[in-house]
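Repro:
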Amino acid sequence: MGEVLGRVLVVDDDEVIRQLIAVNLTLEGFQVETACDGQDCLDRVLDVMPDVITLDVMMPRLDGWVTAARLRNDEETSHIKVVLITARAQEHDRQRGLGIGVDAYLTKPFDPAELIQVVRDLAVSARAGRA
């Protein structure tokens, strides 16, 4: 098996979507962990220390907006690349995500090839930043 391309934490409350993303990224050579909502993400992020987090917006307990903002405002996690993946396709939603400081914004339904490319690019960038 080849070199691991990076570590990704996939966060989505929909198990089917979570597994779809995880399988696609695993097949591409990423090490993947999953979380079922924003609170689960925050509880696990320091143990996982991912290069990239894919984050749904609409989730119970803690939504993606709040989760992304907390990741950005914590010096231990502010460097982690964040991709919001959401059905919220309106421009003001995209601007809100960019205002929080997310690195990419994809809308559902998403193209798995596009997601893989975005995650790959962010993982390369994350690893280069630590080198």
